[in-house]
Amino acid sequence: MLKKTKGIEIVLRPSVSMLGEVKHEVINAKELKSWRVEIRVNGKVNQSQRVYCQSDVALATKTMLRTEHLLGNFSSFTRAATKGTKSYSHDYESRLRPVAA
Length: 101
What we know:
By secondary structure, the protein is of the alpha+beta class. The chain contains three helices and six strands. The model has no long low-confidence stretch (mean pLDDT about 85).
């Protein structure tokens, strides 16, 4: 049986871009029925998303760090997210579809 879960909700869209080399902080906070993922650039919140499944925290974090890299805010976090080889999308899709035996 498949459980219907909510997707990833964007709380705060990125607003700061083209800063070059910056200091990123990734903060994951557990809320009542969800997790909040925040990306801070030089101490200020630049992006925030809410996920309702704990396994989606890694997917949301990696996606947000790739977005930071595309916006021109570079750090060791963003370089690792763009060069990483693990694909979270395949694992995510396999959980949604039942496998016929």
